[in-house]
Specification:
Elements lengths: L11 E5 L2 E4 L5 E2 L2 E2 L11 H31 L5 E7 L5 E7 L6 H11 L1 H10 L10 H8 L7 H7 L3 E3 L9 H4 L3 H4 L5 E3 L12 H13 L3 H16 L6
Parallel strand pairs: 7-8
Antiparallel strand pairs: 1-2, 3-4, 5-6
Helix pairs in contact: 1-5, 2-3
Keywords: Cell membrane, Exopolysaccharide synthesis, Membrane, Transferase, Transmembrane, Transmembrane helix
Subcellular location: Cell membrane
InterPro entries: Bact_transf (IPR003362)
Length: 243
């Protein structure tokens, strides 16, 4: 993992007038993460109960919208749902579901772009995302901007693969970028939303994302989960960092 800069940890994330998550967090030394001795797993039964109740309710209410999206995506060619291997709690691999927002030949398009465009390659290496991603379909851009592409992850939550709130799900290749802080990622289920998503999302550096994910686990409380959920609503409506 590349060296983490001091500015990646500085500042305070305001969840509400009376609740904050502070970055940097205990354990930072000289702008770099101290090796975590342990990362206490999040085992509060209220978290899982909230996951089940809210995701089941949302899935029921969103079903007509999801069916309509599935039809539209199918008309664009290819499967409606896209499943991708992600790393979950304790390093377990699961299939993370989304509505397909990319062209059927997305992998080939990305490989060609990164081989021929130096700036795109640098952006991808820094954030694992592209602001002008040629793989994304016209419908896919709308789905991503509104986060509707992630509605199928409600099924992942019900199955216990994910939580409503947690670190952003990562792929195996990203484990190295977390360095020693991967222990914090493994301590809980990845989330549909999280501290990173309400703190600028794709507008932040990958190093800051690691810091936010680690901070979320270290400073976790059930109340902060509720506040992050509430902060997610305006963040989605404003399309904060959605691309």
């Amino acid at each position: 993992m590349s060296a983490l800069k001091q500015e990646d940890y500085m500042g305070t994330v305001f969840l509400a007038d009376d609740a904050t998550v502070v970055v940097p967090y205990p354990g930072l030394m000289g702008g770099r993460c101290a090796r975590p001795e342990s990362a206490t797993p999040i085992r509060d039964p209220r978290k899982r109960a909230m996951d089940i109740v809210i995701s089941a309710t949302m899935l029921f209410l969103a079903m007509p919208v999801m069916l309509a999206i599935a039809v539209l995506v199918r008309r664009d060619g290819g499967a409606a749902l896209f499943g991708h291997d992600r790393i979950g709690e304790n390093g377990r691999v699961f299939r993370c579901l989304k509505f397909r927002s990319m062209a059927v030949n997305a992998d080939e398009l990305l490989k060609t772009l990164l081989a021929n465009d130096e700036s795109a390659r640098a952006e991808w290496n820094e954030t694992q995302k592209l602001r002008r991603d040629p793989r994304i379909t016209r419908l896919g851009r709308f789905l991503r901007a509104t986060s509707l592409d992630e509605l199928p992850q409600l099924l992942n939550i019900l199955r216990g693969d994910m939580s409503l709130v947690g670190p952003r799900p990562i792929v195996r290749a990203e484990i190295e970028r977390y360095g020693d802080n991967i222990a914090y990622y493994y301590a809980t289920r990845p989330g549909l939303t999280g501290l990173w998503q309400v703190s600028g999302r794709s507008n932040t550096s990958y190093a800051r994302r690691v810091a936010l994910d680690s901070t979320y686990v270290r400073q976790w409380t059930f109340r902060k989960d509720v506040l992050i959920l509430l902060k997610t609503i305006p963040a989605v409506l404003r399309h904060d960092g959605a691309h």
